[in-house]
From TrEMBL:
It is found in: Cell membrane; Endomembrane system. The gene is rnfA. This is Ion-translocating oxidoreductase complex subunit A. InterPro entries: Ion_transpt_RnfA/RsxA (IPR011293), NqrDE/RnfAE (IPR003667), NqrDE/RnfAE_oxidrdctase (IPR050133). GO terms for biological process: electron transport chain. It holds the Pfam family Rnf-Nqr. It is a multi-pass membrane protein. PANTHER family: INTEGRAL MEMBRANE PROTEIN OF SOXR-REDUCING COMPLEX, NA(+)-TRANSLOCATING NADH-QUINONE REDUCTASE SUBUNIT E. Coiled coil: none annotated. The complex is composed of six subunits: RnfA, RnfB, RnfC, RnfD, RnfE and RnfG. Part of a membrane-bound complex that couples electron transfer with translocation of ions across the membrane. Belongs to the NqrDE/RnfAE family. Its EC number is 7.-.-.-. The chain crosses the membrane at residues 6-33, 40-61, 73-94, 101-127, 133-156, 168-193.
């Protein structure tokens, strides 16, 4: 896949191969933190930062340490340890400089560590054999796509907060329906760019 333009990968990871709406990775925090736009935006920025940093660092570790020493089978463990360390760094920075966001995100900030979208990006870039620039574009685009999806869902959820929704669909039910409709809407972008 070395011949694919990084900009195409970047755009595809936002729209046509969105981690949430195409791959359904990272759903737990996506549903739980999408009640308010401000909180969703903050978590989206944190996820984007983590995705960007970990995709680049995991690429370098995989290709320059694991592959030369024949340790590719350790990639899951190494990727998870690096993601956990990176998220811990982000958590300390957010707690220090943006305490209101830190307390509004609560447990979901450290849960970025187990957000499967983060590990998914690192694994997809290895499986798809991206270069370093392509991996960086994929990481940034995936983060921005995740942010776009969670902020859009938060906006919709705020709009329908006072709407007459049947009792059985309140909460997670209507949220999953909205997510499904958003995924269908994003399928409309599939003719523009598609990178598998």
């Amino acid at each position: 896949m070395g011949n694919i333009n990084p900009f195409v990968i970047f755009m595809a990871s936002i729209f046509t191969n969105n981690m949430i709406l195409a791959n359904f990775l990272g759903m737990c925090s996506f549903i739980a933190v999408s009640r308010e736009i401000k909180t969703a935006w903050g978590l989206g920025q944190a996820v984007t930062f983590v995705l960007t940093g970990t995709s680049i660092i995991n690429y370098l570790i995989y290709h320059y340490i694991l592959v030369p020493f024949g340790l590719e089978y350790l990639r899951f463990i190494v990727f998870i340890i690096l993601i956990a360390a990176f998220v811990q760094l982000v958590e300390m920075i957010v707690e220090r400089y943006v305490p209101t966001l830190y307390y509004s995100l609560g447990i979901f900030l450290p849960l970025i560590t187990v957000n499967c979208a983060i590990l998914g990006v690192s694994l997809f870039m290895i499986i798809r054999e991206y270069t370093l620039i392509q991996s960086a574009a994929f990481g940034i685009g995936s983060g921005l796509g995740w942010t776009l999806a969670i902020v859009a869902l938060a906006g919709i959820r705020q709009k329908i907060k006072n709407a007459p929704i049947p009792k059985g669909l309140e909460g997670a039910g209507i949220t999953l329906i909205i997510t499904g409709l958003m995924a269908l809407a994003f399928i409309g972008f599939s003719g523009i760019v598609n990178v598998q």
